[in-house]
Amino acid sequence: MSSSSIAIVFLSFALAASIFLVVADPVSRWLVAWRARRLPQRLEQRLREEWLAEVTHLRTPIGKLLFALRLFGTRTSSLASAMDACDAPEGLTGAVVLSDDRILVAPSDGEIQVAGTIDLVIVIALILGGYAALSDGMFRSLWMSFIGALALWHLVAACSICLLGATPGELIVGLRRVTLDRTPLTWRRVARLFGLSYVAHVASSVVVVSVGLVIAGAPLSTLTVGEAAAVLGRWQFGLSLLVLHALLFIMSSIRASKGSADSRRSDPEPSEMILVYRTRTVTGVPEDTSRGSTSAMR
Amino acid sequence: MGDGPRLSFQSLKVLRVFLVAATSDVRAELAGADIMHAATISSGTLYPILLRFERLGILTSQWETGSPAELGRPRRRFYRLTSSGAQFARDSLSDLSPLADALAGEA
Description:
- The structure holds two protein chains of two kinds.
- Chain A is α+β, with helices and mostly antiparallel strands.
- Chain A has two domains: about 5-80, no CATH class; about 95-290, no CATH class.
- Chain A has helices at about 5-35, 40-55, 60-70, 75-80, 110-135, 140-165, 170-175, 185-215, 225-235, 235-255, 285-290, and strands spanning about 95, 100-105, 175-180, 275-280.
- Helix content of chain B is about 60%, strand content about 10%.
- Classes of the chains: A alpha+beta, B mainly alpha.
């Protein structure tokens, strides 16, 4: 084996090890959050926080991953059989009593997906509206409309969450966003949450546009402004960009829903602990949701 | 012991961890990862055992003091033996002395 081959093998192992070190923590968090979501509601609410805390506590990436993988392979029935007698955790885990006849309960996956779809329709409407509103010229492209619509969407969503407690889609479905520590959703916290999301969208746009230009046979190094505008203005390019970002949007919406923000790699700051709940009007508090969940949130 | 719950080898390992911890502090509290390492069992095995023991009143658990915002992370949940659970653990391990010896040998 030549020295260059050895170097390539060594570098490959180093790269694989680096990737493992980087992804072990977020993957572990995602695995335990995913596993918890498949459990009955009261058990999910308790074990998700407990497991995420243990993943945070474990020091080695291998330890985190093994912890998560072994939970991932555990049968729901073996965990659920002990559910009835376990206390729900204090704080915002378990149904939250709003008043004598209103409680917050965790929504179903379907409700979250419907809310996300409504938000997506609003974003697409903003894009098409922006495209129609832009005057003719090099900036009249789906891509430019998309960036503008994203900026507007994040502003609308941030305002909606701060003032009304949910995005437009969540409001229509009847979902509300609340924080894990039951503190109010302030402008600063929402701005921090959406600021990151906005930067991520713009950054991904730049990457996708660059790749698209190269694929279209327009190398960036020799591309003139006029040529770039011509490529960006093609409807096929704009449409493919729209589809790619729609996928990104859906993925980020799924991540943001049902506490999956907890699975992000960064430390779980309060701003990232925003959970989506659904308001339910009841006659009295049902027995199965009242135990250990009497935190008033008036 | 005959009327009590059926205990697996892993369950006995968990009980033994709590008893050992209780020798230094009667009200010793242990979190999942600590128990997992001390008992050398996997997380997938441990949590059903913990939940079952809690249901049976052998263990009790509570959240770590402080809110997630103060701690900057999710709260850990700590388990400890109840007084009846401690007696049950001692009885179980003494009744199964050969198995208890095997457990001690593994520790």
